[in-house]
Amino acid sequence: MPSFSILREDIFQPGPASLVSAALDELNRRYGGDSDTAHLDNEEMAPPRGGFFVARSDDGHLAGGVGLRSIVDPDLHLGEIKRLWVRPDLRQAGVARGLMAAVENYARDCGYAQLFLETGWAQPEAQAFYQRIGWTRIDDFPEGAFSYPLGIKFTRVF
Q1: Euclidean distance between CA atoms 140 and 123, whole angstroms
Q2: pLDDT value at position 155?
Q3: Based on the number of CB atoms within 10 Å of its own CB, is 103 exposed (0-12), middle (13-18) or buried (19 or more)?
Q4: Rounded to an integer, what distance in angstroms lies between the CA atom of residue 60 and that of residue 56?
Q5: Residue 35 pLDDT greater than 60, yes or no
Q6: With contact defined as beta carbons under 8 Å apart, do 8 and 50 qualify?
């Protein structure tokens, strides 16, 4: 099994930006059309209320990434996980689990009380993964937060 390291990196650097692009490309291929860039600005995944985590293999190559942003009102301490993506050749190698653990720990350190995420019907492997790692399926996001009507929503309370 390959080994990798996970660190928080600046979302505006080439590595993290390319991971976001890869995630959007996969979403476009799975769902068709344009990706959901209208409802997320990369700046939202920057400190102090956001962050982007990158997994790299021992040789420094990108393995995957995941972002965190505040949703609704920062004072409510609600966050959203965005753009979890792992290179296809490294899926099932623990990269996604490591990324989610890192971003959840960071969210706790930032004072978030509850996190949300959304996936879709064309991502059954993501749905199963989130349930496996302890996320709970829910019907709706908090009032005032954007979500897709057909999106499959999950939450995690700290």
Answers
A1: 18
A2: 98
A3: buried
A4: 5
A5: no
A6: no
21/47 Cα distance (integer angstroms):
20
Element (H, E) at 17: helix 14-31
Mean predicted lDDT score pLDDT of the chain: 93
Q: Is 3.40.630.30 the CATH classification of the domain at 4-112? A: yes
Strand segments, DSSP code E, in the chain are 4-8, 51-57, 62-70, 78-86, 114-119, 136-138, 152-157
Is this structure's pTM higher than 0.90?
yes
In SS3 terms, 25-45 reads as: HHHHHHHCCCCCHHHCCHHHH
Please state, in angstroms and rounded to a whole number, the distance separating the CA atoms of residues 122 and 128: 12
For the chain, how big is the Rg over CA atoms in Å?
Answer: 15
Q: Tokens in use for 108?
A: 């706790």
N- to C-terminal Cα separation, the chain: 31
Question: Taking the mean position of all CA atoms in its chain, how far away is CA 129?
Answer: 13
Question: Is residue 51 classed exposed, middle or buried when 0-12, 13-18 and 19+ CB atoms within 10 A define those classes?
Answer: buried
